[in-house]
């Protein structure tokens, strides 16, 4: 009997202090609440800072480790900041970090795995939140090649309330049924579910295993341009006007 959750509180907006929430029946496996001095890098025991032009999805950004793009705010948040930068071939820099550890939705499992394996999307990917071009729509997506309607993936969406409040995005794996067909993965915003899939939705046990039984790294990034968003133009904001700000990331387990 097992369930787990990945929870992120974020907003491209103002700095604020947050306490890690507690949930009935769940204990904290791991978390980062991004406390530190303004301008510091995130904790290197928790995060790998990814740099360079990765050539993904026709995106334009070059990822850097500069605090111009990636920094602790000094107020208990992490800021990922895209910027126009004429010194790069694409004219843009941004930030991307990936968790050092991986987390597997099985009882009591917290593993540090090698950063190699099956290519995307066969390896499975779960996007807890994607937001495009500043629109107040949040997308939750599962990628798993043939059974996930690629290249879009199996996707749900919800409206993001306007204003300057942070929001809690949560991804729940429920494996309490002990039956792969009825196990589920559910996306929610501020405690309200907006999308869910189960093993029957995917229709293939091996593919479901890549989404619900396999180790996952946590990734935070701000991309510029690309297939999904289209190229930036003169109206595209950079700097703090288009950053992603994260108050905490946490993994819970029953």
From TrEMBL:
GO aspect biological process, one term: carbohydrate metabolic process
InterPro entries in alphabetical order: Beta-glucanase-like (IPR000757), ConA-like_dom_sf (IPR013320), Glycosyl_Hydrlase_16 (IPR050546)
Superkingdom of the organism of origin: Eukaryota
Domain GH16 intervals: 21-254
GO molecular function: hydrolase activity, hydrolyzing O-glycosyl compounds
PANTHER family: GLYCOSYL HYDROLASE-RELATED, GRAM-NEGATIVE BACTERIA-BINDING PROTEIN 1-RELATED
Protein's UniProt name: Beta-glucanase
Organism from which the protein derives: Grosmannia clavigera (strain kw1407 / UAMH 11150) (Blue stain fungus)
Lineage: Eukaryota, Fungi, Dikarya, Ascomycota, Pezizomycotina
């Amino acid at each position: 009997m097992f369930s787990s959750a990945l929870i992120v509180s974020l907003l491209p907006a103002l700095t604020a202090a947050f306490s890690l929430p507690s949930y009935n029946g769940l204990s904290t496996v791991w978390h980062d609440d991004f406390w530190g001095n303004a301008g510091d890098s995130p904790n290197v025991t928790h995060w790998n800072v990814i740099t360079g032009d990765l050539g993904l999805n026709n995106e334009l950004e070059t990822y850097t480790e500069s605090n111009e793009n990636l920094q602790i705010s000094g107020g208990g948040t992490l800021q990922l900041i895209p910027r126009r930068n004429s010194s790069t071939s694409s004219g843009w820099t941004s930030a991307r970090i990936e968790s050092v550890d991986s987390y597997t939705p099985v009882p009591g499992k917290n593993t540090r795995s090698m950063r190699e394996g099956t290519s995307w999307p066969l390896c499975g990917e779960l996007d807890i939140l994607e937001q495009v071009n500043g629109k107040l729509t949040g997308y939750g997506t599962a990628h798993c090649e043939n059974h996930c309607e690629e290249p879009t993936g199996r996707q749900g969406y919800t409206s993001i309330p306007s204003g300057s409040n942070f929001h809690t995005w949560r991804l729940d794996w429920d494996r309490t049924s002990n039956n792969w067909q009825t196990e589920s993965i559910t996306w929610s915003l501020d405690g309200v579910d907006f999308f869910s899939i189960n093993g029957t939705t995917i229709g293939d046990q091996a593919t479901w295993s890549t989404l619900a039984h396999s180790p996952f790294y946590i990734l935070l990034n701000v991309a510029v341009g690309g297939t999904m968003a289209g190229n930036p133009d003169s109206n595209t904001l950079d700097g703090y006007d288009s950053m992603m700000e994260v108050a905490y990331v946490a993994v819970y387990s029953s």
